User: Fold this.
Amino acid sequence: MFVRRASEVPSEPVGAGEGTTRQVLIGPDEAPNFALRRFEMRPGGGMPRHTNAVEHEQYVLQGRARVGIGDEEFEVRAGDVVYIPAGVPHWYRAEGEEPFAFLCVVPNQPDRIEVLE
Amino acid sequence: MFVRRASEVPSEPVGAGEGTTRQVLIGPDEAPNFALRRFEMRPGGGMPRHTNAVEHEQYVLQGRARVGIGDEEFEVRAGDVVYIPAGVPHWYRAEGEEPFAFLCVVPNQPDRIEVLE
Assistant:
């Protein structure tokens, strides 16, 4: 059991991304079934088209971005919910003036990121 | 795969709570491993001390509340992360002027709420 401030959790750059950082808010070693992470992307930054071996359940906290999932594109902003099934190609490009930040929940299962371009 | 606005998801009262509503943002029938819900409590409202059969991974979106977990009490506010293991008694009391809102992720496993007082 714990309570922690997200802003005090260390952030690390995401290698495959550009201007993208990740914080592990609740790690796979802290809870039995899934991990809670927070991503932040500076305007113009993002992640290239890629797949993961696990699904993503996401909630946008601030900012806005263009997001591609499969063959579709979406404009997302604070208050949007995004579901990306395992194995579906997806990408992000942060837009606007402020950083784009979202929560991303993944199961505690082995993941592999494969960049597609 | 989908994108939806949280504000457009129907909300329902939580029977065991007071002034408390729940929205199922990503349901157990929509994703394989866990469900994403949003709870909102009006100031003065909340949930009595209870246990669940499943763990909670939570992120506070707005407002503030007094939260009891096990034998401890916390003041939480927007940007706080809360982890409540399965079976640990917990309660909420929304404080301040605006509604207290948080995300709560639970595994797709049978749950049972037991109110303790």
Notes: Residues 12-68 of chain B form one domain.
